[in-house]
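Continued from yesterday's entry.
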Amino acid sequence: MTFRALLLDLDDTLVDHRGAAERGLRGWLAGLGLGGDTAETEALVERWFTLEARHYPRAQRRELSYTEHRRARVRAFLPGWDLADDALADEVYGGFLDCYRSAWRAFADAAASIEAALGAGLRVGVLTNGEHAVQSEKLRRTGLLYPDVAVFASSALPAAKPDRRAYEAACRGLGVSPETTLMVGDSLRHDVLGAQATGLHARLLRRPGQYDATPVPHGVRVLRGLDELRWSVRRSA
C-alpha cells in the first residue's frame, strides 16, 4: 500500500499529555495547600483524572463548551469551595492550566518522525480532539508546529474523533482520500477503530510504561514508538 498522507494524534502520541497533567496537577495542588501527604495527593490525582474522563468527552460531543466542562470539573473536584461564580471557577481552573502548560514536553521521537514522513513525501497533519488554539499552542511550545503540517482540532471540525466526519475533514484538508491515509495514535477507539471505520489505515501507539489494559483486537498493528513508524512509512511510500 502506498500512503500519501500521515495523520498523527497529539496528546500522548506527540506530546506527553498525561505526564504534563500529572506534573502540573501536583504543582497546582501544592499551591492550593492540598495533598498534605502522599496518600492524600495520590487520591486527589486519581480523582482529577476520573473527573476528566467523565466531563471532557461531554465537551468533545458538544454537550457543553470547553469552558463549561472546565467549570464542571473544578467544581466537582473542589466541592467544599464556593465556586458558583463562573469567573472564580475560571480563575481557579486557570491555575491548573498554567501549571499544566509549563509541563508540556514532546516525546523524543516526535520531531524526527514528522520530519521523516515529510522527507518521504507524505502530506502530514495532526488530528486531535480539543480546542484549536490550545492544541496549536501546545505544538508551538514543544517545537512541533511545522508550517507544512496542518493542525485539525475538533473545536474547528464538524465533530470529534471517533466520528467519521473528523477523519473525513482532515483528509479533505490534506487533499487526500482516506484509503491512502495512515492514522497513528495512542487511543484504540479514537485513533484506530474510528479511523478504520472511515476507510483509513491505522496503527496503535503503545509506548513502554504507558499502561492501558484495553485488549488489542486481532489484526491491529501496534507500534512501541514513533521511530518504528519512520520505517513503516518509508517502506510503504
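--- second protein ---
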Amino acid sequence: MTEKTIADFWFDPSCPYTWVTSRWLLEVEKVRPVEVRWRVMSLSVLNEGRDDDPEGDPEGYLWVPVRVCAAVRQEYGQEALGRFYTAMWTSGRDRGDHDWMGSLHDALAAAGLPLELAEAGASTAYDEAVRASHAEGIGLIGDHVGTPVVAVTGAGGERVVFFGPVISRAPTGEQAGRLWDGTLLVAGTPGFHELKGAPHEKPRLGDPM
C-alpha cells in the first residue's frame, strides 16, 4: 500500500473560503494518498495589535467558534474536530441567515460531541491552546498570510507549506487531485512566494462542483 501523506490543515472556522478549501481537501483524500489532519488557527490572534479591523469584528465574536474548536481538539482529538467543523457548516444552518454558523449545540450534537463544549466559546480556558496551535501553523510560513495554512512533507522529505489555495468552488474527482498536484509543485519550488488568479467571487458553500 502507498503510504499516505499527512496534510496538516490550520483553519479559522469562521472563514467561508477556508471552508471551501477544506471540502476540496476531503475530495483530494478520495483520489490521492493524502490524509487531512485538522488544526486550528485564529484570525483574531493574527490581527491582534493592528490599527484596522480586516474582519469587521470589534466585539471579538470570532473568538467563540475557534475556542470551541480548540476545546474539541484538545478533549477529543483531531478527527472529532474534523467532524465538528463539517457540522458547523452543515447542521441547522439557514443559508439565507446572517447566522451562518448555525447553532453550536446543533453542530456538537451532529458530531456526536457533548453539548457543554459550547461553553468554551464564552471562556478563556482554551485561549492558550488556540494561540499555541495558531503559532505553530503561522510559524511555518509567516504572519503575512491568513487562513488556511497547509503543511505537507514532500517526496524528498522536505516540508512544503502554503497558504490557501483560496477557491470559491471545491473541485471534485481527478480535478481535485490535479489541483493538489499542481499546488504542491508550485509551493514546493525553491524561491516561490505568491501566485494569484482572478478576483474573488462569492464562495459556493454547498456541494462541491
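The chain has seven helices and four strands. The chain has a mean pLDDT of 88. Will compare against the first tomorrow.
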